[in-house]
């Protein structure tokens, strides 16, 4: 009986993943933090980050002011939680950089990296836009725009890395540093 239940669960998972429709997984979060100057600082910053639900592995380089965190599979990333955790320790968060795998979709007229399960979307940009969201701040690279449109129509998985920032009332925006097609 237990074998049948496990087999049914496994097959359901395979069928659910078979179409590779709109899913994303944030695989790594990199926090750039001002004020890290010693091993004790590392302890103080890692302690609250480990308590976050998405936190997997942690690697901190206090000399560079960088914390790299692996994200547990299937967990969404709440940017506000990272900001709050760093602020609560008295350090200054300079930037958040993510690496995520997902599919390209559209939010209004802008390309997004779309998630499955967690419901997260990241607006994709080629140039950083921290103050306003306007058409001239979108991709701006015709070759990349064609690639994104092709990936969107074929529901191709892509891996995107970039710095994330937020706009009032919009999904978080990711400035594309690297974007690659993921081969199954």
Descriptive account of the structure:
The chain has a single domain, classed as Alpha-Beta Plaits (2-Layer Sandwich). About 30% of the residues lie in helices and about 35% in strands. The chain contains four helices and eight strands, in the order αβαββαβββαββ. It has helices at about 1-20, 40-50, 80-90, 140-155, and strands spanning about 25-35, 55-60, 65-70, 90-105, 110-115, 120-125, 155-165, 175-180. A five-stranded mixed beta barrel has the order 4-5-6-8-7. The longest helix is centred in the N-terminal third of the chain and has 17 residues, at about 1-20. Residues about 1-25 have low confidence and may be disordered.
The end-to-end span amounts to: 33 Å
The CATH class is Alpha Beta
Beta-strand content = 35-45%
**CATH topology type:** Alpha-Beta Plaits
How many individual domains? 1
What integer value in Å does the Rg equal? 18 Å
The spatial strand order of the largest sheet comes to 4-5-6-8-7
Q: Which range best describes the helical content: under 10%, 10-25%, 25-40%, 40-55%, 55-70% or over 70%?
A: 25-40%
- The low-confidence runs, each spanning 5 or more residues with pLDDT under 50, are 1-23
Helical/strand content category: alpha+beta
CATH A-level architecture: 2-Layer Sandwich
Give the topology string: H per helix, E per strand.
HEHEEHEEEHEE
Largest sheet: 5 strands, mixed, barrel
* Overall morphology: elongated
Tally of helical segments: 4
| Number of E strands | 8
If you average the pLDDT, what whole number results? 79
């Amino acid at each position: 009986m237990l074998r049948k239940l496990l087999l049914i669960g496994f097959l359901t998972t395979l069928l659910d993943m078979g179409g590779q429709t709109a899913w994303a997984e944030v695989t790594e979060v990199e926090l750039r933090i001002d004020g890290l100057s010693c091993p004790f600082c590392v302890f103080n910053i890692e302690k609250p980050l480990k308590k976050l639900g998405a936190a997997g592995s942690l690697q901190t380089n206090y000399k560079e002011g960088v914390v790299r965190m692996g994200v547990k599979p299937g967990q969404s990333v709440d940017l506000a939680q990272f900001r709050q955790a760093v602020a609560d320790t008295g350090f200054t968060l300079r930037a958040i950089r993510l690496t995520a795998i997902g599919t390209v979709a559209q939010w209004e007229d802008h390309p997004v990296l779309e998630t499955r399960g967690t419901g997260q979307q990241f607006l994709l940009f080629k140039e950083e836009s921290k103050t306003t969201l306007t058409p001239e701040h979108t991709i701006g690279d015709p070759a990349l725009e064609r690639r994104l449109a092709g990936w969107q129509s074929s529901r191709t998985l892509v891996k995107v890395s970039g710095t994330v920032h937020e706009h009032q009332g919009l999904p978080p925006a990711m400035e594309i540093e690297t974007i690659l097609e993921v081969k199954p």
